[in-house]
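Page 37, continued from 36.
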């Protein structure tokens, strides 16, 4: 995270959407590499 983002209000809707989108992208890329990781897929 950039220093400016750390100072942002983490309860704001924009920050939560940003965080959730990044989490989905990380899980999706992980599942492309590890197709049989059903535990992570369930977390998505």
């Amino acid at each position: 995270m950039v220093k400016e983002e750390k100072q942002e209000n983490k309860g704001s809707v924009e920050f939560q959407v940003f965080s959730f989108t990044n989490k989905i992208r990380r899980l999706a890329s992980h599942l492309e590499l590890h197709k049989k990781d059903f535990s992570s897929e369930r977390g998505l």
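The chain has one domain: 13-43. Flag for discussion at group meeting. The helical segments are 3-6, 13-33, 38-43.
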